[in-house]
Amino acid sequence: MERKIYIVGMGPGREDMMTGEAVRALDQADVIVGYTVYLELLGQRFQGKEMVSAPMRREEERCRLCFIEAQKGKRVALVCSGDAGIYGMASLMYEIGREYPETELVVVAGVTAACSGAAVLGAPLNHDFCTISLSDLLTPWEVIERRLKGAARGDFVIVLYNPSSRKRRDYLRRACDILLRVIEGSRACGYVENIGREGTRAEVCTLEKLGDREVNMFTTVFIGNSDSIILNGRLITKRGYGIERNIDFRRNH
Amino acid sequence: MERKIYIVGMGPGREDMMTGEAVRALDQADVIVGYTVYLELLGQRFQGKEMVSAPMRREEERCRLCFIEAQKGKRVALVCSGDAGIYGMASLMYEIGREYPETELVVVAGVTAACSGAAVLGAPLNHDFCTISLSDLLTPWEVIERRLKGAARGDFVIVLYNPSSRKRRDYLRRACDILLRVIEGSRACGYVENIGREGTRAEVCTLEKLGDREVNMFTTVFIGNSDSIILNGRLITKRGYGIERNIDFRRNH
Fold first, then answer.
1. What is the ipTM of this complex?
2. Is the pLDDT of residue B245 over 60?
């Protein structure tokens, strides 16, 4: 029997922010595995399903659980928030999958917080950008610092994931201080909390002020590049299109 | 009358890779505006709609067209491939929107090629990454070069958009040569052509070989970071989770 596990990015949370492909993978699953909070975010539509949750920081056991369920002949879907391949479980599933060569892995892409957050803020990512997680659970702070510097020197728009947590209250402040060595304090920035969930809140400010703002593990932070501006409360990164003069377009009727 | 224009990311092309929100925005539109190729990609579902297409390089007129149609009282959706905010039309719409203060802009996020391409290749983005467009139509090559160096020094996974075109055949080669000054030739890389469309094709190779590969404007290129590996033909970026010993999970039944 052919065994497949679907590794599904559910987007920020709302069902209508999932792709059709992701909804279908969950509809067809016998068992849905995921971090408790994400399973709770799944709409009424999936509540009849067998759900298996493992707490945070137990990523490896959550993965093994998927293979164990698949070996029982069940159709398994592993849900991750956003995109399953971005700070998600996809790569760990492939690593552990070496022990289960009879099981095929299928990643179903989703809308990551950089994209869903940008849509709320305006258009901050409209040129080259990078994502950096401020969580040092799995990454030494020196590497995070090196990436912040590289991103600032490269004039990328920067999206910060996991900007803060109970144990890392001052990490956004620390990141801003590093960026301020390269970037001017008036740089246009913004942040979004609870994207696609209850209580979505978006703010824009300068890099100078950003470090003092209250953020949490559900906040995504955006630092503009040298072409970014705040326009009527929106964060916009210009692409610098030249004005076009000669109008010429076709209609289908 | 309240006027809204929806700026919709359609994902890579297949309708089931669009979000429910994006499908709804197009369903409810009186007129769908977009680059010819994207309008043709839209499924049977939308073919009854009034469609207005403007050719490539006419981004500004395509945007103005949306506001003109909205002023006629029509519900307008502007489609972009991938995510409308990533190398898309969102920021230009906000800039031109200054002239049309009575029209509200709503960006509907979509799955960008970095995410959809990563899902085909395996899990190459599973840590901090950046996107860089190799198109120098709107960006001086010096800026692109600066970003390539910043990304390599920061040890980011790098996703290259627009790696080549008829007029820029050697740009991927040029980009690889710049990266090879900082990154070893054996670095794990990959690329995907026609994501979510007819003839999807994915390949993995080393950075050394990447510059010689045939790519086109429908190819998305991935350069791994120092933790990336090629595993059974997949490109995987390790997150380095520690092994967990004590199994402890809950079932809903």
1. 0.93
2. no
Element (H, E) at B202: strand B201-206
What is the distance between the alpha carbons of residues A9 and B162, in angstroms, rounded to a whole number?
A: 25
Partners of A161 in beta bridges:
A133
Contact B204, B90 (CB under 8 A): no
d(CA A140, CA B110): 32
pTM (2 d.p.) = 0.93
Q: What is the pLDDT of residues B139-181, one digit of tens each?
A: 889 999 999 999 999 999 999 999 988 888 899 999 999 999 9
Which of B24, B51, B131 shows the shortest C-beta gap to A129?
Answer: B131
| Chain B residue numbers touching A23 (CB-CB < 8 A) | 20
User: Among A143-152, A155-164, B49-58, whose mean pLDDT is lowest?
Assistant: B49-58
In terms of Cα–Cα distance, which of B13, B48, B16, B55 is closest to B32? B48
Tell me the per-residue pLDDT of B56-96, one tens digit each, with 9 for 90 and over: 667 888 899 999 999 999 999 999 999 999 999 999 999 99
Show which of residues 86-145 on chain B sit within 8 Å of chain A, judged by CB atoms. 86-88, 90-95, 98, 107-112, 115-116, 118-119, 122-133, 138-139, 143
Which residue, among B103, B101, B94, has the nearest Cα to B63 in the 3D structure?
B94
Spatial neighbors of B104 by CB under 8 A, at least 6 apart, are: B2, B3, B4, B5
> Nearest Cβ partner of A85 from B108, B123, B240?
B123
Neighbouring CB atoms inside 10 A of A30's CB total 14
For the record, the structure tokens of B112 come out as 């960008």
Q: Do B153 and A153 touch (CB under 8 A)?
A: yes
Identify residue A53 by its one-letter amino acid code. Answer: S
**Is the CA virtual torsion A96, A99, A101, A102 positive or negative?**
negative
Judge contact between B16 and B102, C-beta under 8 A.
Answer: no
pLDDT on residue B20: 97
Element (H, E) at A160: strand A157-161
Residues A133, B128: C-beta atoms closer than 8 Å: yes
Would you report the helix, strand and coil content of chain B in percent, each value rounded to 5?
A: 30, 30, 40
Q: B227 Cβ partners below 8 Å, 6+ apart?
A: B127, B237, B238, B239, B240
Distance CA A124, CA A118 (A): 6
Within 10 angstroms of residue A104's Cβ, the number of other Cβ atoms is 13
Structure tokens at A184: 């001017």
Answer yes or no: is pLDDT of A223 > 60.
Answer: yes
